[in-house]
Design brief:
single chain; 516 residues; mainly beta; seven-stranded mixed β-sheet; globular; binds copper (II) ion
Length: 516
């Protein structure tokens, strides 16, 4: 019986692993489709808040569904998964302190169209093939609404989550977080933007309305019929691949879109929604732009940049001034690839948005405030020929006992000791944190004797990493130190690498926030 089941699984995997000719995205004519702007989510009414039945808040119902979408004029419609028939899903617009409820409904089909690896923890073959659970990335959310990876639900089921939004203005995003198949669900399209605003942001008079535009960037691979391809290892018993690099980048769900702009300031809310790809964004005319915010909101002051590095799951709030570029066509590049085009018109309506010299004070947390220091190794486990088979946090697996148990309202320093050859974007749920510094260390001494020997100077965070963060690049061969105050709620959360292939294969651990 077990043998027959295993055989069937392998045949299913083999069936899905059939190599299809991959589309060379460079053969597509660029800049023929207008950039889509995701619709703003509309509430379906109001409902009482859990535990406070006298308080009513906006209630939204978003259904996850399969649909077809034209990602390029010259491609056949692509099968995708999204929210209410779009990927990215509708954008939430809310204000700090304005709580809301979302019923996330799984109305997906019962079989997955991407290759599941049933050998991965949480993706066993006896579980429903299609499962989903939604996490609000960057949200300070009670544990029961955080989208714990094991709290997935099958088609026909739903979960209603409460988002208090008691946090500063920021660009958050929502996405699937299902144990073992998260990389496939997000790749299929289960992600969207969630904007929180507040009076500090309002007072800055930043570009708004049609001059404020979300840019959700996701690299993908398509076959010649325009269908999503996801690679497999070639081993039918373990189709998992350690990372994904697509040859085409969707911007709000289109390949190589264009956007008509006026010669004035625009605010772009950029999300790297890729599974694994680190972005290196520039403008083709070499012009400077300003980063005004990072993951958890506004920076203290604008940071001028010509080149923006953005790890998976990181966000950047940018102001680009097209004044002085009337009539030009400017390409946004992820070096060296083209991503999208800005077509600057000859004339502009009166400029109303501004870019103040200071934005929001960001008080640095003193290191002396930390009552606990944790050394946490990022480890790649290879097979005999050096192929990665698993990624671990502190050599522990998902189902090992919880080891990180911070106390509510206490401050800790986490030292992320990256012994691998890859940079890993590390994300903590519930909290916001600050980056202290990075420093090279000697890997052999650490791996063989557990001894931390530094080999280089302390490197401060980049200027655009000096604000509040929820995801940090832990670079290869370096110790990246962050300082975190565990505020908000007690209960179980997770921290993980946001390379989704790593997260799915053990590079995720629970942590418990304990009461005082
Ligand atoms: Cu990783």
């Amino acid at each position: 019986m077990a043998g027959a089941l295993a055989l069937r699984q392998n045949m299913q995997v083999a069936d899905k692993a059939v190599a299809r000719p991959v589309l060379d995205a460079n053969t597509l004519l660029p800049f023929v489709d207008a950039l889509p702007i995701p619709a703003v989510a509309r509430p379906n009414g109001t409902k009482p808040v859990p535990f406070h039945p006298s308080v009513h808040v906006p209630f939204y119902r978003l259904a996850m569904r399969e649909f077809e979408s034209k990602v390029h004029r010259d491609l056949k419609p692509t099968r995708m998964w999204g929210f209410g028939g779009s990927s990215p899903g509708p954008t939430f617009e809310t204000r700090s302190g304005q709580g809301l409820l979302v019923e996330w409904a799984n109305e997906l089909p019962r079989s997955h169209f991407l290759p599941i690896d049933h050998g991965i923890h949480g993706a066993e073959a006896n579980l429903p093939e299609v499962r989903a659970v939604i996490h609000l990335h960057g949200g300070k959310v009670p544990p029961e609404s955080d989208g714990y990876p094991e709290n997935w639900f099958a088609p026909g089921k739903s979960a209603t989550y409460f988002y208090p939004n008691e946090q500063d203005a920021a660009m958050l995003w929502y996405h699937d977080h299902t144990l073992g198949i998260n990389r496939l669900n997000v790749y299929a399209g289960l992600l969207g933007v969630f904007l929180i605003r507040d009076p500090v942001e309002d007072a800055l008079n930043l570009p708004r309305g049609r001059y404020e535009i979300p840019l959700v960037l996701c690299d993908r691979m398509f076959d010649k019929d325009g269908q999503l391809c996801y690679p497999v290892s070639g081993n039918p018993r373990g189709p998992w691949v350690s990372e994904f690099a697509g040859n085409a980048t969707l911007v709000n769900g289109k390949l190589f879109p264009y956007l008509d702009v006026e010669p004035r300031k625009y605010r772009f809310r950029v999300l790297n929604g890729s599974n694994s790809r680190f972005l290196d964004l520039t403008l083709s005319n070499g012009q400077e732009f300003c980063q005004i915010g990072s993951d958890q909101g506004l920076l203290a002051a604008p940071v001028p940049l010509k080149d923006l590095q953005l790890a998976p799951a990181e966000r950047a709030d940018l102001v680009v001034d097209f004044a002085g570029h009337a009539g030009e066509q400017i390409v946004l590049r992820n070096n060296p690839f083209q991503i999208m085009q800005f077509r600057v018109s000859k004339t502009s309506a009166a400029e109303t948005g501004s870019l103040p010299a200071t934005l929001r004070p960001v008080a640095r947390i003193e290191e002396s405030a930390a009552i606990q220091k944790r050394q946490l190794a990022l480890v790649e486990v290879d097979d005999l020929v050096g192929r990665p088979v698993q990624m671990l946090l502190n050599n522990a697996r998902w189902r090992d006992p919880v080891t990180e148990k911070p106390i509510l309202n206490s401050t800790e320093v986490w030292e992320l000791i990256n012994t691998s050859d890859d940079s890993h974007p590390i994300h903590l749920h519930l909290v916001r944190f600050q980056v202290l510094d990075r420093r090279n260390f000697e890997r052999f001494a650490f791996q063989s004797r557990g001894e931390l020997r530094f080999t280089g100077p302390v490197t401060p965070p980049d200027p655009n990493e000096m604000g509040w963060k929820d995801t940090v690049r832990a670079d290869a061969g370096m110790v990246t130190r962050i300082i975190v105050r565990f505020e908000g709620y007690t209960g179980r959360y997770v921290w993980h690498c946001h390379i989704l292939e790593h997260e799915d294969n053990e590079m995720m651990r629970p942590f418990d926030v304990l009461p005082k």
